[in-house]
UniProtKB/TrEMBL annotation:
PROSITE patterns: D_2_HYDROXYACID_DH_3 (PS00671). InterPro entries: D-isomer_2-hydroxyacid_DH (IPR050223), D-isomer_2_OHA_DH_cat_dom (IPR006139), D-isomer_DH_CS (IPR029753), D-isomer_DH_NAD-bd (IPR006140), NAD(P)-bd_dom_sf (IPR036291). The keyword Oxidoreductase applies. This is Glyoxylate/hydroxypyruvate reductase B. Residues 5-319 form the D-isomer specific 2-hydroxyacid dehydrogenase catalytic domain. Its EC number is 1.1.1.79, 1.1.1.81.
């Protein structure tokens, strides 16, 4: 008999067929308590769980006593209680490699569109306000040869450094838990403490996961250290930045602009004050959202679940230490 699996994300047809070849699949819309209650038997017998978003916590795990592996279609896994998974010996698989270049492209897009005010001026032209040659009121600020500070030098940070160094001749600073020799030797990146990075960077780019340590790592005090001409880019997780403090800093001129792909609450409420600010470029968490990359993530997530439920995990596992 094929192992039972809960799927809570729709997959391209070929990947769904592959999943069906290996498992007996129940597709549900999410993993909310209501859905779990509705499909209690299927959740109780499932050995695998594949999808993205939604909290996978002790309450959900208690309803899934047969669970052996979760496979998330994402690199981030802050919505999973990893300690609870470890206690229950449930593997957690994710997609850390396939999206790297695409997310770095998104970050560079935010750097360029905030500095050159692309969305704001697009609206301005379409509203018929282009009546004569532009003047200082429409000018932006240069990106090339400026200093770009990266918080979190993981795969995505490295791909961003590559773009900034080779494409834009930028000077790279980074703050990370470990020294990154490749970033230093290939892109001339300089490791520094958070305070120095915030003080010296023209662009501060956040590519950090959300953990207890990174929650509100950038608050009012840190924003004050930044240059008034500086721009903050966040494509990691919203709660790494205190959004209220950021809104205040953008309003009072402590900070020039912000490019945000992530928010403290997602979807960001339509009436959030931060969305009213002209110096904010807001995106709906599209870091990895291209046809090619989202397909690649779904493909990896399916392969990851097949590997995990067959005892063949050799990559993409958050907690490999729990394997017997
Ligand atoms: C996107 O935010 C991801 O974690 O993949």
């Amino acid at each position: 008999m094929k192992p039972a699996v809960i799927l809570y994300k729709s997959l391209p047809d070929d990947l769904r067929a592959k999943l069906d070849d290996h498992f007996s699949v129940t597709e549900v819309k999410d993993v909310s308590p209501e859905t779990v209650k509705q499909h209690a038997e299927q959740f109780a017998s499932a050995q695998g769980l594949l999808g993205s978003g939604g909290k996978v916590d002790d309450e959900l795990l208690a309803a899934m006593p047969a669970l052996r592996a979760c496979s998330t279609v994402s690199v981030g896994y802050d919505n999973f209680d990893v300690d609870a998974l470890n206690q229950r010996h449930v593997l957690l698989m994710h997609t850390p490699t396939v999206l790297t270049e695409t997310v770095a492209d998104t970050m560079m897009a935010l750097v360029l569109s905030t500095a050159r005010r692309v969305p704001e001026l697009d609206k301005w032209v379409k509203a018929g306000q282009w009546q004569k040659s532009v003047g200082p009121a429409e000018f932006g600020i240069d990106v090339h040869h400026k200093t770009l500070g990266i918080l979190g030098m993981g795969r995505i940070g490295l791909a961003l450094a590559q773009r900034a160094h080779f494409g834009f001749g930028m000077n790279i600073l980074y703050n990370a838990r470990r020294q990154h020799e490749e970033a230093e030797s290939r892109f001339g990146a300089r490791a520094c403490d958070l305070e120095t990075l915030l003080k010296e960077s023209d662009f501060v780019c956040i590519s950090l996961p959300l953990t207890e340590q990174t929650h509100h790592m950038i608050g009012a005090a840190q924003l004050k250290l930044m240059k008034p001409s500086a721009i903050l880019i966040n494509a990691g997780r919203g709660p790494v930045v205190d959004e209220q403090a950021l809104t205040a800093a953008l309003k009072d001129g402590t900070l020039h602009a912000a490019g945000l792909d992530v928010f403290e609450v997602e979807p960001v409420p339509a009436d959030a004050e931060i969305l009213t600010l002209p110096n904010v470029v807001a995106l709906p968490h599209i870091g990895s959202a291209t046809h090619e990359t989202r397909y690649g993530m779904a493909r990896d997530a399916v392969d990851n679940l097949i590997a995990a439920l067959n005892g063949k995990v050799d990559k993409n596992c958050v907690n490999p230490q729990i394997q017997a």
